[in-house]
Structures are given as C-alpha cells and as structure tokens.
Amino acid sequence: MNPLRVAIVGFGKIARDQHVPAIAAADGVELVAVASRNASLPGVPHAATLDELLRDGPPIDAVALCTPPQVRHAQAAMALAAGKHVMLEKPPGATVAEITPLVTAARAAQRTLFATWHSRFAPAVEPARQLLAGRKVTSVKITWKEDVRVWHPGQVWIFEPGGLGVFDPGINALSILTRILPQPLFVTSADLAFPANRDAPIAATLALSDAQGLNITAEFDFLQTGPQSWDIDLDTDGGPVTLSMGGARLRAGGKQLVDAAEAEYVGLYRRFRELAATGESDVDLAPLQIVADAFLLGRRRTVEPFEEAT
Ligand code: NAP
C-alpha cells in the first residue's frame, strides 16, 4: 500500500510537539507539506494557507488540521471538497452541529473524517476500559488542573469565543471518561468562572450522571501552579481505580497496572491510515456535547481578569 501523504495545517505547538514525530514514527504515513501562515518546517514544502496548498502544493491524500477549533470547520469542508481525508485535532469544532455536514460531505466524497481524541490513545485507557467492564462503578472524580501559562503560552484563541478555555484540556478527561464508561453520560450542573476580560472559562466544576444516577464530579482549573493533575478516580465494587497522568498510568487493587510513556499520536496516525484505506469516518461527539451542555446549563461567575504575564 502506498503511504498516506499528509499535510499538516496550522503549524503550532501540537503540530511540532506531536504530529511531526508521530508521522515520522508511524508506518505508512508521510509528511509531504505544511500549510501555515507564519511557520514552516525546513525541508518540507510550505504554503501559507490550505487554499494555496490545494492549488499549488505537492500531491497530498490527507490533511491534519492542527489549527484552533474556530477555523477548522471551513478548512475541513474545503479539504473534503478537494477529495482529501481529514484528521481533526480535538475538539472537533467550535460548535457541535457544525460537524454533521462534514460527516455528510465525507460520506458523499468517500473520504475519511477522523475526529481525534488523542487522550483515548493514552496507554492506560484501553486497560482501564477492560477492567471497568467487569465492575460496577459507584462514583467518579475528575481532577484536571494545569497552568495555562506553562502549557498554552501565547494561545490567545483559547480564551476567545469557541476556544473552550479550561475545557480545551478538560475535554481530554471527558474523552477518556466517555470511552471507559460505555453508558451515555450527561451534565446535571455546572459552575463556570469567566475572567472579566475573557470570553471562555478559566475554571469549571461539573456534576454529571447517567441513567442509573452515577455520581460524577469534575474539577477543571487553568491556574494550577506546582504539581499538575490529570487524574480520574473511580470507586468501584472491586475497589478504587485511578487513571493518572492523563491516561498514562492505571492503578487498581493496590497495584500499578500500567505506567507507560505517552505514545498517543502514533496510535492516532495508525488509526487514520486504517480509516483512510477504506474511506470510513470515526466521529464521536460525546465529549464536545458534554462541554456544550456545561455552557448551556452552567452558572457563570465573573472572576478577576486574566493576564498571561504575571
Ligand atoms: P497553537 O500553538 O496556537 O497552534 C495553532 C496554529 O494554527 C498557530 O500556530 C497558527 O499558525 C494557526 N492558526 C492560529 N489561528 C489561526 C487562524 N485564525 N486561522 C488559521 N490558522 C490559524 O495551538 P495548539 O496548541 O497547537 O493547538 C491547536 C489544536 O490542537 C487545538 O484544538 C488544541 O486543543 C489541540 N491540541 C493542543 C495540545 C497542546 O498541548 N498544545 C494538545 C493536544 C491537542 P500560523 O499563524 O502559522 O497560521
């Protein structure tokens, strides 16, 4: 099979940190171009925009859209119309409903639309899903607290409308939870803290449940200094289960069952190549729906303005 020729669109932090090395490490995938207004990669053909890339760039089979969510819908529609497979970084869009026409367009073009949730490819997530399949979960606590100044320097879009604020990382926890618990989950209350000078929350507390009344709480904070937390603690009828480090570690029954280095993006590209071989799509909107519902139901508090430089 010929390698899948991929162009990265939006050459920012995640493109450099994860997509470039993952494409190099995954079999059957090749980086053939970069489209980005202000950045390029030496030795790789470059275009300023997707439009320019599709018109004048080298032949490509697929695009990996690593731009902010607010601009991805138009780019995905353009790429599908040009007959390219599309990988969407998470979250798949700035709204839930904008994804449906993309699914339809992908089907009509017999091309893949892959709405990625990289955290689902963390090494402890599948073992956790299997472990929990044989247990009754009685409560869940998500603690997702990181320092926005450390992890998202200069990313103005994150606090703009559609940027999701603290849910930009928080949605990763929700992507894991909706994978390891198969039943539908829904928001029952939300408290959202908006900085006075920003349009997206900097902290949030959610309560969620399922049809059986499962008690799920989630704390998201973007101002965490010191130790950072990306943890999901579950109480089960077989004892406590903890997924930590964003899904890299799994602890249950007093034992560390998984403690592996992160390799999420190689898994994402393997999956993308598999999907593109048949033109099948993989789109699960459950995590984005939960965040959207938190915005619908959430009580909003105004907190002190956020300035990146302290
Ligand atoms: P980023 O560093 O800001 O990079 C995004 C790039 O997209 C920018 O460098 C910019 O490149 C381009 N861009 C920005 N605004 C644009 C616009 N209005 N129109 C067209 N292009 C625009 O952001 P990132 O951290 O890589 O995040 C991108 C996506 O990946 C987000 O959805 C995020 O949730 C996801 N993600 C990020 C991380 C992480 O740790 N950072 C982890 C996993 C997933 P040019 O100016 O050169 O065009």
From TrEMBL:
Signal peptide: none annotated. Pfam families: GFO_IDH_MocA (PF01408). It comes from the Bacteria. The keyword DNA-binding does not apply. Keywords: Oxidoreductase. GO terms for molecular function: galactose 1-dehydrogenase activity. Its EC number is 1.1.1.48. The keyword Oxidoreductase applies. Residues 4-114 form the Gfo/Idh/MocA-like oxidoreductase N-terminal domain. InterPro entries: Gfo/Idh/MocA-like_OxRdtase_N, Gfo/Idh/MocA_oxidrdct_glycsds, NAD(P)-bd_dom_sf. Coiled coil: none annotated. This is D-galactose 1-dehydrogenase. It comes from Bradyrhizobium algeriense.
